[in-house]
Amino acid sequence: MIVSWDWLKQYVDLSMSIDELTDRLTLTGLNLEGVEKIDSDMAIDLEVTSNRPDCLGHIGVAREVAVLWEQELKKPAIDLKATGEKIDDLASVAVECPELCPRYTARVIRNVKIGPSPAWLADRLKSLGIAVINNVVDISNYVMMESGQPLHTFDFAKVSGQKIIVRHSQPGEKFTAINHQEYELAEGTCVIADDQHAIALAGVMGGADTEVSSQTTDLLIEAGDFAALSVRNTARRHNLQSPSSYRFERGVDPECIDWASRRCCQLILELAGGELADGAVDVAQPAEPRPTIKLRFTELPRILGIEVATEKVQKTLTDLGCKETHICDHCIKVIPPSWRADLTREIDLIEEVARIHGYEKIPEDAGVKMVASVRSLEDRVHDQVRNVLVAAGFDEAMTISAVDRKWVDVFRPWSTEEPLVVSTPVLRRADCLRQTLAPSLLSARRINETLSNSTIELFEIANVYLAQPGKLPDERRMLGISSGGGYSSVKGVVEAIVAAVAPGNQLEATLHDDKFFASGRGAQLSLAGRQIGVLGEVSPWGLDQFELRSGTTIAELNLDCLVEFAVPIRTVEPLSPYPPVGRDLNVVFDEEVRWAEVEKIVRTQGGDLLESVAFQEVYRDSKRLGSGKKSLLLSILLRSAEGTLTNEQADAIRDRMVADLSQQLGGELRA
Amino acid sequence: MALADFLASLDTLAQQARDAFASAGAAEALEAVRIEFLGAKSGHLRLVQKGLGKVDKSDKPAAGKRFNEVKTLIESAFNDAQQRLAGGGPSETLPFDVTLPGQAVRVGHLHPITQTIREMKDIMGRLGFTAVEGPEIEDDYHNFEALNIPLSHPARDPLDNFYLKCAERAAGDSATHPLLLRSQTSTVQIRVMEKTPPPVRIISLGRVYRPDTADATHYPMFHQIEGLLIDRGVTMADLKSVLRLFCQSYFGGDDQVHVRFRPSFFPFTEPSVEVDMNWQGGWMEMGGAGMVDPNVLRAVGYDPEEVTGFAFGLGVERICMRQHNITDIRALYQNDVRFLSQF
What ipTM was reported for this prediction? Predict the structure, then answer.
């Protein structure tokens, strides 16, 4: 709402400076957006929250100033002389949809002379940035910006049948607005019509046919109230937001409607001449009585934390226009003014008292009670995971939660169900809520490739969304990784995460065939038999989907699942004081034998004495080992808690391991 | 084998060899270390050399060059150790440049939004607020109705929200609640209050979504952190004090930090205020706050005559961007590693 300093002065004394005025208004509910000097005037842009439509006119803002500076509000007096015929002989109004139009008033003025507005009127509108058209149109804009009540003037001669009908639009009905664009009206739109067709979109915009022009002589002045939701839908659907629709969407003062109509007529008679028809057509639904609201004085400190003197409470509420109906030691009862539909409850009055009394009076050093807070296990685990990844050289990415439809089928590790779809894309074509983080990370990877960034090591912790019939979707917290390294380097990172979060758990990998992974280089990951993630080098086909130039390995882990394995409190094992003994085993196996099988046998045989087993390398040589054979080199570290192991003991353990490997997996010790 | 992997294994080997030679205390031990690393048949260096054969052809020159450097390095480490054990002490003859850069260690970076949230959570944790999370896909009851936002409210307009398409409906008695990406994290507060009798002292945080066109200051997805304290006798003075403590902690413990309230309007709080803190001679907007509206308390089964409470919400991006001098919100979601590595 732009307020003119000069204009505001008409209704209230402005003895303060503009800074003082705007500072105080900012702190009491009308936030200053900016001040612009326009000729000798100043245009003050104030932000009006949606609950305060009473401040969408100069009188409303002046009322706030009057309350704050304890000044008198000077509202213009209206003295109207009707010299024309009786209005009922000239015009009629029928409201067919009272639920969309609680009130409609019309007045008629004949034989006006359309011409330019006088300078004072033109200046007022200029200060507000409103186009100056002609005296009649300018007056209706002026009265709207004065009172907050939108008005519309029709060229009455063009209103067919001298009849105003407020009704729903008919199917396929067309309408040409004053912007000279034709609109096909959405069904159920509230229109003002004559006996032929729609001549205005109720509360939104007038029509070209009945527009006031230089030839106009007779006027019908409309002032009414239209239902907020209907006005908003009409404005939205036809993309026709106007100062009028803005005000009806927020609600107008029911008792100001007639005042604004009379004020408009007064100014027209003054500036454009003519004869005012006697009386007004006023079609109104019975207004709902305004409630009496009780404010208990004890509620003020209970909510605000400070006491406010009873006299101050009483004065604030009555200054704001409330009618006091009762006051005693305990409470005050008031009926709020017609322009404050937002005041219906005790808490509403408390807010009024607080803002006028001043929020600066509320202390900022209250002794707030001390209580313990708890960090969730999830939070701790997520931090552990982040710490490992940062230490391993990964940068944390953040990507949007939706993806393009074309990426949904590329890789589906968690679901083959249809994705959840948003009615409008979140960004560009991304309207599918993602079921995996991989596409988002690969797209971030591509951006980095385009930027010629050489090292691209990314991870993200975020949700994936899986539909569940009849329930809120299943949101799972995932860790996604995309690295320039190969399978084993990323597997090492995943193993480090498991070791950090859930020590003692063994990550198991099983070969996983997926078009998205290079052949033989993708795996399902599990902990204790539960699938916890996937890992693999992306296949050339997969890279193509994201137009990636160089290879990447991705991993995705279900962190909700990992949390279930978390060991939040660590307990120490007693440490053996005796030295370890190391042994290397070089064993030849058939190609099909997996490391995991070898390791399991070694661990079983090693028992408590085996401190660690480490894979060293795999060696293939068809001449020396035979085709389809490989040699695995592994190192074991043995240690006893009871004493120093001798070489003989260590050799014996190694030999038993070799024997088991030979028996169970066909392994042969390599000389 | 990827070149990066091969080079990494070389670096590890060089480091291990240097350490081993340097710590060999006798001729016998030195010989063992020599065999371990330089042994002709199965010394580590020999094994790594085999790996050279598996490097992609195009990477061979680079890999070979580095291999030779490492080989020279290990051999010189052996020579040094030999001389040292022969009574010469550490080699003083080989030149060494102490100004050469150290061996690079690649450390990653947490996203600035994560860092901001961590800091906020830490501070609020110290002030007794437990962090909670909730679903990002909500039904309109939790996103609107329970928050005192009636059907006629403009905030519920389909054009201002990401409603889900199709027949996705939440369960419950009224199986007709449409689902949407939450537009605020207050939804989590409702879910917590529905399950927990007062007192409640939480912060809820996470992603929220609004259909804004992406530009320098808007993005359709952003983060919120919202605090809620419900108990007997909670007042606006408590709200102001908690926010001041938060600002003091976040911006450096200065007791010259003050907060001020400006009246505002939110459906789920009353009175509602905008919160500013003093900053570089002026006031900086921190977020919105207020006393929880009695309708909201009633909607979750609390008695507004028994308990009162406050709620506040801070925009994570705004605070993060101001602190780190980020001028375009889109930079936060582009994931350019050069951007990320500055945090």
Answer: 0.89
